[in-house]
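Replying to the earlier thread about multi-chain prediction with a worked example.

Input:
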Amino acid sequence: MRSAILRALPAALLGAALLGAWEIYVDASGVEEDLLPAPHAVAAALWNNGGLLWHNFTVTAEEVVFGLALALAAGLALAVAIHLSPLLRRAVYPLAVGSQAVPIPVIGVLLVFWWGFGIFPKLVVVALICFFPVLVTTVDGLAAVDPEQPKLLRTLDASRWQAFRLAELPAALPAALSGARIALTVGVIGAFIAETSTPTIGAYPGLGREIVTDINLQAPRAYAGTTVLIVFAVACFYALSIAERRLTPWRARPRGDTR
Amino acid sequence: MAASDVQQRAGQLAECGAGNGGIVLGDVGFAYPGTRRQAGVQALAEVSLQVAPGRTVAIVGPSGCGKSTLLELLCGLAQPQSGTISCPPAVLMPQRDLLLPWLSALDNAALAPRIAGRSRAQARAQADELFEELGLHGFQQARPHELSGGMRQRVAFLRTLLSGKPVLCLDEPFGALDAITRGEMQEWLAGTLARDAQRRTVVLVTHDVEEAVLLADRVLVLSPRPGTVTATFDVPLPRPRGRTDDDVVELRESVLAALGADARGEPR
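Result:
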């Protein structure tokens, strides 16, 4: 416990220093609150709008978590297919890369036309943004297995599937999990994009919509919402890191590495 | 092939017990195909050899003479372009241990029974029986990165043994170890093979002539690429053999001389 606090200390100190500098800057420059609210104003907005922000946050968190799950399933499945079939690799890989250049608003209306105004089109957007890092890292991880390993397994009479399950899949796991961590961090902004670029009727909740509405009316609340997103992303990132260590205990980490 | 050749080959096959653990290679040639930028490489040319069942034969030769290719052919990982191979099912032990880092030592050793469809518990029990005998007791649950180089090679060897195949192809099994550990492991391997109830046929590829003379019943010298057998030495010495025994030293020098003659390209 004490060591955990000690490990978090540098980040906490740096964060505090940056907040202090921000506070002083707002104070000294006289910049308007609508343009850049001071940290104390953001904290007050966070405190006063706790219920509202929490309600919107649960919706956004749901989009991130389920969208990421969808992205993991799609990214892993596609990576395995690409790994096993050179033909599929040539056919699918360029399209997967290209999919990352599609501006979401272009397809936002279509997704809503297909799947309605509920959460599902948002999940699809998050998944579309998140599957790519999972795909790339997993494909590379699967290919990075020692080329001698399949030979050895063949002389032990392993089938293609057994060789895949025994050697390639576990070898790719750390890479896939690294991809998942990248995916998660882009997933948070992905949820924001999903909420703001799919049309809705009435008031669909979510931090993305909240922030976009607030930024012109009450900037401190927009910043408070942003703070919630930041904390969520950091927390998820470290939660996944812990999961990664549990899932891949054979990887010896250098001392002092606190990922 | 003339009728008399066929007869002679059949005779050799019977003599070597091909089919029950013996190995016969007749004029085997193998070339790696070239690419657009690189010419093909003739790795082996007209390699003929026989190994009687239960015997250990060592193959020595300079780097790149096709020793590893020869083992791949024996293990069925590649097919020769010419010549004939008669070899019972063979299992490869590569120079690097290639233990799977995510499995415990016990599960790594038990890989072959697992692949053969045995249950996890059965496979582990089978490997566990031999752990003590091979000097690995207490390391069942250790992960490969927690083991020393010598320990890892023992686990890799146990994995090879548990395949149950009658022929073991060892590709410089101790090449990556330091001199002291290598000496220990050579003694260990000699003892383990001597106690092996199945009396397996062993093909040991090495560039360490001393290792070859200590462990093998017969030493074959392979020429530089394309590799072919240029000399054969029988090692009729009792075991255990010491590296400073007069007979061992003498034979080692003879094999080294044959290797040196090859390297200088002298006719024989």
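Chain B has two domains: 20-31+42-89+165-268, 99-164.

Feel free to reuse this layout for your own posts.
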